Amino acid sequence: MSDLAPLFLPAGFRFGATTAGLKASGRPDFAIIAADQPASAAALFTANKVSAAPLAIDKIHLGMSGGLVSLVLINAGNANCAAGEAGYNAAKAVCLAAAETFHCPPEQTFPSSTGIIGVPLPAEKLIAKLPGLKSSIGPTHEHFAALAQAIMTTDLVEKTAFARIELPVADGEAPRCIHIAGVCKGSGMIHPQLVPHAALHATMLVYLLTDAAIEPATLQTLLNASANKSFNCISVDGDTSTNDTVLLLASGASGVQIAAPDSNSASNPTLYENFAAALDQVTSSLAKQIVADGEGVTHVVELQIKGAASDADALRIAKSIAHSPLVKTAWAGADPNWGRLVAAIGYSGAAIDPERIDIRFGDLAICENGGRAAEYNEKAAHEYISQPEFTIHIDLHQGEGSCTFWTTDLTHQYVSINADYST
Amino acid sequence: MSDLAPLFLPAGFRFGATTAGLKASGRPDFAIIAADQPASAAALFTANKVSAAPLAIDKIHLGMSGGLVSLVLINAGNANCAAGEAGYNAAKAVCLAAAETFHCPPEQTFPSSTGIIGVPLPAEKLIAKLPGLKSSIGPTHEHFAALAQAIMTTDLVEKTAFARIELPVADGEAPRCIHIAGVCKGSGMIHPQLVPHAALHATMLVYLLTDAAIEPATLQTLLNASANKSFNCISVDGDTSTNDTVLLLASGASGVQIAAPDSNSASNPTLYENFAAALDQVTSSLAKQIVADGEGVTHVVELQIKGAASDADALRIAKSIAHSPLVKTAWAGADPNWGRLVAAIGYSGAAIDPERIDIRFGDLAICENGGRAAEYNEKAAHEYISQPEFTIHIDLHQGEGSCTFWTTDLTHQYVSINADYST
Asked: What is the mean pLDDT of chain A?
């Protein structure tokens, strides 16, 4: 474990950020993550059939490198999507220049872009900043925070999460830890639909780093399971982005090996489970941070769906509610108009019995057997959903399917932010 | 043909409206359509699995009466949905009282409700108004206009459409016409998904009347085809209502019989086609009027999708665009941000090739082969979509699938209207 690694950051990575002039605001917009040694990698990408140039390059590079990444290059202010051959060539040029500057094979570079769609990326602006970036990178929390800020677009706050796993040691031995750190951005176009090398959504960019040693296939299994419970269960506006990316890198710098429980190598099932739980903690924290910082959001809503015919039906119902403009505007006004929830459940496509739907706002009975609950109290319901965060419980009484989903209201501010984005 | 029938209204129907005290505004909220003789009927209802009490009664009544309707009873201000047994009993009580007042069999009554969900209908308020309604009904345009106003909720303007078909007559004979009249309401919760006796959407209520003589099965065939090209191709907010209803009544009072071209009776294919075309004219006019009066709407957008792999894929793409908050808010700001259109096409689920997408705003080339068009002019694009109505053409170059779809922007006013609806 590197002496330089601070308390919460995984060893083996350095970070940097600079201003390349892509953001109209003039704020930092170009960041990198450099691995001291090629890191084992797993990735998920948007399921949108229109996807950005850097994602195409990422998939090719991961294949060529056998799942190794040395350099992550992230720009904000330009999505480099729907920019044709010019966009692809621009991303490729930045990768080649960065590989030369940082002395790594080009196929170990991993580019990401977020921002406006349809405008070719000005590669030369990024390339000009590479030497400066190289000399300024470092492993500290300050360097990590600079990265977190530079990748923001309409985000209001930087988003990071950390987890540590302490390893059992013999008496007198120094304590040993492995670390997981996550950093992400995302505020609008947030409804990730991630698939391995093919499907998350929203312009959400997520970078997860650990100093455990984990081979790429195991890393991918861990990432898939964790993303399905976190990033694939959030929605701000239902718009699945062309650029969503989640990257998990394992530097191995802790010297601690984690193998799949069913692998032939000497695996430690408890350590594997502990690592999976710690990863879940980081991914669900980041997912909730994205929702909380959603464009114009004033209420964060946790949907607890149970009693659905299947988990897929539970998710269908959650998404139908999370994407209903009428439900989301009612939340903006703290209006307990639960009929809109019932309507959204009804058109979700899930198997339901309208006369067995129960809805609670926190502990308050709202709807029972599909009708207004006997003890329904509009004032209490209004007060409960006036809170910045609240939970809605829905029981369909159809089976064992369930899900937890995080979403937001739809406010005047969302309209203001998005009615004047590019012009 | 009744001497009383005015120029554009079908003979055989009378109309009335009154104030029953369901609307907080105190405006008229209870309307009826009374057929002089039981009228042949065809109907379509929301596909939402949660549907309102009157729709359940309508389906039973149409079955019992063999497709005959004498009395349409419409209240606004209360959807009578998710109100359990009490809601069903309330609707039933109004039907029974109305059948007695108007001397028709109860199964020939057709109730409709629109308004807030989850509040039991106060039947006694409606029943008290029946005698007054009976004495005031009439066949004039003034009576018809009173009906159009009483069924409005968040609608700003009344919505009617008319068509006449002149029949060939011998020299010296008086001209003979058949008439079609339509009246509807709908402004929010507008994304109808109609099926025969099972599926339209949004709280859209549509009543189509003709004085042609058409038997119920033929009437249903005509209605299905016409609704699929009109009401099933509009969306304001993507919320499919629990109460959507389209009813087509044929009084036969013109004495002109219209039969299906393939029926055994002496059919007149030309007359059938002319009637179908006139019906399409009325339904598409009403559908566009609903979109134009959508909640908070400042831009009405016609989507012309072609070159899709199938008609179903074309509709999938149109709906994906029409339901994207990012696209709709961009339209609100007349922001030509076409990348959001490309993203919505990409996550629609339709078969596409990202590099073969062409987009035009009216005659302006915007996107060619998935990238910014060579002659793209942002200022011209902005000016074109600053108009209150505009057309977006999308060609996927995948096949012969196409559709025409009408939708709207998403504005501050939509948020204002819906963030404070019931409280």
From this structure: 90
- Angstrom distance (rounded) from CA A96 to CA A256: 32
> Is A382's Cβ below 8 Å from some Cβ in B?
yes
Size of interface A-B (CB pairs under 8 A): 245
- The residue in chain A having the minimum alpha-carbon distance to the alpha carbon of residue B355 is A84
What residue of A is the nearest CA neighbor of B332? A419
B351-361 average pLDDT score: 95
Interval B198-252: pLDDT, tens: 332 337 899 999 999 999 999 999 999 999 999 999 988 878 788 888 999 999 9
**A53 Cβ contact list (under 8 Å, min separation 6):** A80, A81, A83, A87, A88, A90, A91, A113, A121
Identify which of A86, A117, A193 has the shortest CB distance to residue B343: A117
User: Within 13 Å, how many C-alpha atoms sit on residue A394's CB side?
Assistant: 33
The answer to whether residue A79 neighbours chain B at the CB level (below 8 Å) is: yes
Phi, psi (5° rounding) for residue B247? Answer: -120, 130
Provide the pLDDT for residue B233.
92
To the query of whether residue A203 is one of the catalytic residues in this protein, the response is: yes
Asked if the Cβ–Cβ distance from B347 to A372 is below 8 Å, we say: no
Q: Would an 8 Å CB–CB cutoff place B386 in contact with chain A?
A: no
- In terms of average pLDDT, the best of A123-137, B45-59, B157-171 is A123-137
Q: What are the structural domain ranges in chain B? A: 13-292, 300-418
The CATH H-level (homologous superfamily) assignment of domain A13-292 is L-amino peptidase D-ALA esterase/amidase (3.60.70.12)
Mean pLDDT of B331-353: 92
Smallest CA–CA distance, residue A3 to chain B, in Å, is 45
A121-151 pLDDT, tens digit per residue, is 999 999 999 999 999 999 999 999 999 999 9
- Reported ipTM: 0.79
**Cβ-based contacts of A370 with chain B (< 8 Å):** 50, 82, 84
Dihedral pair phi/psi, residue A335, rounded to 5°: -90, 120
| Residue B67 predicted with pLDDT over 50 | yes
Contact B335 A419 (CB under 8 A): yes
B268 pLDDT tier (thresholds 50, 70, 90): confident
Round to whole Å and give the CA distance between B206 and B201: 11
Output the pTM of the full model: 0.82
Indicate the SS3 state at residue A157. coil
**Tokens coding B379:** 């200022």
DSSP B135-181: HH-BSSHHHHHHHHHHT-SS-SS-EEEEEEEEEP--TTSPPEEEEEE
**Would an 8 Å CB–CB cutoff place A50 in contact with chain B?**
yes
CATH class entry, domain B300-418? alpha beta
DSSP B73-98: EEEEEE---S-HHHHHHHHHHHHHHH
User: CB distance from B117 to chain A under 8 Å?
Assistant: yes
| Contact flag A81-B412 (C-beta cutoff 8 Å) | no
Check CB contact under 8 Å for A48 and B340: no
pLDDT, tens digit (0-9, with 9 covering 90-100), for A60-69? 999 999 999 9
Instruction: Say whether A117 and B339 touch across the interface (CB within 8 A).
Output: yes
Contact B204/B185 with Cβ under 8 angstroms? yes
Average pLDDT over residues B82-99: 94
pLDDT of A263 over the 80 cut: no
pLDDT score at A270: 87
Q: Are A41 and A72 in contact (CB under 8 A)?
A: no
Is the CB of B336 less than 8 angstroms away from the CB of A422?
yes
Name residue A41's beta-bridge partners.
A249
Chosen for mutation from B45, B46, B49 (greatest number of chain A CBs closer than 10 Å) is: B49
Amino acid at A230: S
Of B120, B354, B378, the CB nearest to A50: B354
Chain B CB contacts of A84 under 8 Å are 355, 369-372
